[in-house]
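[User]
If only I could read backbone structure tokens as easily as an amino acid sequence. I have put the entry right below:
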Amino acid sequence: MNEGETKRYSDSEIDLLIDDISVIAIEAIERAAAEAARAAALAALEREAAALAAQAVLRRDVERWKNETETAKKAGRMNTILAASFGLFGGLLFGAGGVMIIFGNK
């Protein structure tokens, strides 16, 4: 065959080339599908890890808020007891002072 001539392929050679190309294409598609499946699984794992991390932060925040609420309740009880005590003591002093003034003048 000379340089200027076109090579002629038989039908069986063309069929073999098509079969070879088809096999290579199917293998490439399968590799791409497997890679896409791995990427999807990795993305799902990353989302799950992010959700777990957010959940851990939320748990810490809830625990902190619960502790702050308990502390505020204790402080509120103590403030109530102190206010009642001062009120009672002040009322007694005021009442006793009033009685002394009223009965002290006679």
User: Anything to note?
Assistant: The chain has a mean pLDDT of 89. The radius of gyration is 45 Å. The first helix runs from residue 11 to 104.
